[in-house]
Amino acid sequence: STVPAFDPANVQGDILVGLPKKAQQYIIFQIDDNVTAFRKALNNLIPLITTTTQVQQDRTKIANNKKAAQEQGKTPKLIKLSGVNVAFSQAGLTKMGITDDLLDTAFTAGQLKDSKNLGDPGKDVDGNFVPDWLPAFLQGNIHGVILISGDCAATITETRTTIEHIFSVGTPNATLHEVTTLIGKVRPGPEDGHEHFGFLDGISQPAIEGIDTNPNPGQETVRQGIILVGRDGDGIANRPSWAIDGSFLALRYLFQLVPEFNNFLKGNALTGNGLTPDQGSELLGARLMGRWKSGAPIDLAPTQDDPALGQDASRNNNFRYDFTDDQTTTIRCPFAAHTRKTNPRADLEDIGFSTETRRIIRRGVQFGDEVTPQEAASGKTALDRGLIFAAYQSTIPNGFQFIQISWANATTFPPQKPFTPGFDPIIGQTNDDSVRTLAGTDPNNQTAELSLPTDWVLPKGGEYFFSPSIPALRTKFAL
Ligand code: HEM
């Protein structure tokens, strides 16, 4: 069969470019029993769905607005913008009577069944593993998710009201109902773009062939099929033809224990080389993450932060862990640092493996409020906060699932190192409460193991979804 020419207007906008957002809702829903009515109503949602072409235009608008304000010496006002995307779980496809097999084992089984493999903490109940998730994610009734993004919470509420009308929510004719809503918002002021531990996020993404035609130095370009089903580079054959230009979305509701993380860094500050205690804990944090809070990669700035480097897109991704001794020592970067575990670059490429098929596009958003003075003083989390992790790929088993299980949780990864790297200190995990360790954090005593007494990232739920193309929504999903 012939593959239709690529058209960005067919692809939902969050996948390849990302819905611009200061706030975001993930409305996780169950389809009600009148499935035909739901699929008819879906026709009215489709015009609201933001395509890749529209997101590109929105981003140009934002950039022009910023430039105009700067030329007048003003701070740019946010433009009112709202974006909508939709994705379905396997249970949702089944509910709608769509029986084609998308040939993705993780998607088909659903994330609840995968939670044990992912290493999520939990326990056996009557012979079944039950992760320590919130009840909403344990019922097995999640059929889909509607993403609404916007410049502020009020814009999102407006869009949400429109969408609720489409599905008659709250009336006897409702065709869907909310299971739960995850409410994301970026952090305030200078923390905008930083995750809750304080580190700038969203720096390293793969560039997509034909879309990101002007990649930054060091940014890997991947074939479209690494992210989009049915395109060049999608290694899974014989998928239904309507699946082309869709993408699998791995959604994870990850709680972060920020005061506990900060206390650990304080209590285990690196010493020597004239480091003050504060500098020693900052350096340890940077070595656990692989980047300084500013975003500067420690492979390029191993001893002290370089905020200008962190900000500079032409330099902040231009490294491979291939400086002299990088492959055999952790003088610059621990083998198990989060960014190195999740994208090992030269660790694999220089021993003959490509990392292309493991790349994912991350579109997460923070949730929850800033740490309160009481939480900081007590060192104990009292309010919920963390990351709504959302990653797109054309295959979950080769993407998110592989990175979590075979890289982050695998103590022997990256391979062929002179000592065992250990767990990814941010997201590496086991089902039980055994103490995680990693090595290489102290550049002056590399084989020393550091024990991580608690997990600071706690998975509390999630699901795998398929984000169909706009034509598929029209012809296969809507009636
Ligand atoms: C990069 C934080 C969860 C995969 C990063 C960066 C930060 C970060 C600060 C560096 C910024 C960048 O390079 O873009 C976190 C936090 C998490 C979390 C706080 C949990 C609360 C995850 C999960 C995965 C993941 C669950 C996948 C299983 C990645 C990847 C990169 C990355 C692939 C890019 C690495 C590179 O290309 O150099 N993360 N992350 N992260 N993270 Fe995470």
From TrEMBL:
Give every Dyp-type peroxidase C-terminal domain span: 332-407
Q: Write the record's keywords in alphabetical order, separated by commas.
A: Heme, Iron, Metal-binding, Oxidoreductase, Peroxidase, Signal
Cofactor(s) the protein needs: heme b
Q: Does the keyword Transcription regulation apply?
A: no
InterPro entries from the entry?
Dimeric_a/b-barrel (IPR011008), DyP_N (IPR049509), Dyp_perox_C (IPR048328), Dyp_peroxidase (IPR006314)
Mind telling me which GO cellular component terms the entry cites?
A: cytosol
SUPFAM superfamilies (alphabetical): Dimeric alpha+beta barrel (SSF54909)
Q: Where is the DyP dimeric alpha+beta barrel domain?
A: 10-188
Single GO molecular-function term?
peroxidase activity
Q: Which Pfam families does its entry note?
A: DyP_N, Dyp_perox_C
- Asked whether the UniProt record includes Lipid metabolism among its keywords, one would answer no
In the record, the note on similarity to other proteins reads: Belongs to the DyP-type peroxidase family.
Task: State what protein this is by name.
Answer: Dye-decolorizing peroxidase msp1
Originating species = Trametes pubescens (White-rot fungus)
Lineage, opening ranks: Eukaryota, Fungi, Dikarya, Basidiomycota, Agaricomycotina
